[in-house]
Design goal:
The structure is a single chain. The protein is of the alpha/beta class and 337 residues long. It has a single domain (3-318), classed as Alpha/Beta hydrolase fold, catalytic domain (Rossmann fold). It is built from 13 helices and eight strands. The chain has helices at residues 3-22, 24-31, 64-73, 107-110, 114-120, 144-162, 174-185, 210-221, 231-235, 241-247, 250-253, 290-293, 308-318, and strands at residues 38-44, 50-56, 97-100, 125-128, 167-172, 192-198, 259-264, 285-289. The strands form two sheets. It has a six-stranded parallel β-sheet, sandwiched between helices. Strand 5 (167-172), helix 7 and strand 6 (192-198) form a beta-alpha-beta unit. Helix 1 (3-22) packs across helix 2 and helix 1 (3-22) crosses helix 3. The radius of gyration is 18 Å and the shape is globular.
């Protein structure tokens, strides 16, 4: 759940985005934005060491400022390189990638980096908006089971268009948890190869205590987040009926035929405690903490979708999936990554 994003962090993000827009060249270098003429693909070789390959780029790999600009100016637009319905998967990348944003977000904001990065590497990439109950560029607030049905319809369209047998799903926050409901309850188990959660609300969240406080206030005054238009907020709280029911299903709410990869930062201020982003240990589950790979990565819940270490881990998971992979490490700032 991105409640803290909406209430507390939103001001920081807006101020940062204004600064980034004014000094876009500087912000591009801070966030590691790849120039539009090339794409830098970081993968692991057979020894697990990082290798970098430069290939011609079709789409500019954007940064946090680009995401904010698109969220405000073109919230219904598709991220660069996505939703090209004539795309045909290759033998190297047989599974189309479906990107699922989080609560209070949209695909235009969330995927200005990952979508073009994957498209430039030859993946068929698709992204959707879902769960709108509040006017404006805000999505992901509706009932999670209904949003999962929207995802199901979208995945069916992707499979029909591309001719692929399955998809890989990558989701942020609610978008990393909601597809598990689709996999478990709406027939997604036979249609999903891999589920990558980025700061996912898998085990629910206290939102640094805000979720707990909200529950107490609901009991006291009888008004919940659902009454304010965000059913998904209530459903993502620790101990909610939705989270409890999902996690109590077989496999801890996972399917044995699907591979699950969860990537999280210790600095996440929205999914708290941060280990709630992880799933119970299993042979088909990987739980990755960013700071185990890069101790100077200070990214948090919002910036993690533009974090270079996260993006490199995603590329490795989709590709060679080397257990000894070591992504490039540098100082990564919070929010703007």
């Amino acid at each position: 759940m991105q409640l803290r994003h909406f209430i507390g962090t939103k001001g920081r993000i807006l101020l940062t985005s204004i600064m980034c827009t004014a000094f876009i060249a500087a912000c591009g270098s801070i966030s590691g934005t790849t120039p539009s003429s090339t794409t830098v693909a970081t993968q692991a070789d057979s020894s697990g060491a990082s290798t970098t390959t430069t290939v011609p780029a079709q789409y500019k790999v954007g940064n946090f400022a680009d995401g904010v600009a698109e969220e405000l100016l073109a919230p219904s637009s598709s991220p660069p390189g996505s939703n090209i319905w004539s795309c045909v998967p290759t033998s190297a990348h047989p599974y189309p990638v479906v990107l699922v944003h989080g609560t209070f977000a949209n695909s235009a904001f969330s995927w200005q980096a990952l979508s073009p990065m994957l498209a430039n590497q030859g993946y068929c990439v698709f992204a959707l908006n879902y769960g709108q109950t509040i006017p404006g560029p805000i999505y992901g607030t509706g009932e999670i089971s209904a949003s999962a049905q929207t995802l199901s319809t979208f995945v069916n369209k992707v499979l029909a268009s591309t001719g692929a047998s399955k998809v890989d799903i990558i989701g942020h926050s609610q978008g990393g948890m909601m597809p598990r409901y689709y996999i478990q309850n709406l027939g997604g188990a036979s249609k999903v190869n891999m589920m990558i959660g980025i700061a996912a609300s898998n085990e629910g969240t206290t939102a640094d205590g805000i979720g707990t406080l909200a529950g107490d206030l609901t009991k006291l005054i009888g008004i919940s987040f659902s009454d304010l238009g965000c059913t998904a907020c209530d459903e993502q709280e620790v101990g909610s009926t939705f989270v409890t029911n999902l996690d109590s299903q077989s496999g801890g709410g996972t399917s044995p035929g699907v591979k699950y990869v969860n990537i999280e930062s210790k600095n996440d201020e929205v999914i708290t405690p941060y280990k709630n982003a992880f799933l119970p240990a299993a042979s088909n589950v990987q739980n990755l903490t960013l700071q185990d790979y890069c101790s100077t990565d200070f990214t948090e819940h919002i910036g993690i979708i533009y974090d270079p270490v996260t993006l490199a881990l995603i590329v490795n998971a989709l590709g060679p999936d080397s257990s000894t992979y070591k992504p490039p490490c540098s100082i990564v700032l919070p929010v703007i990554s």
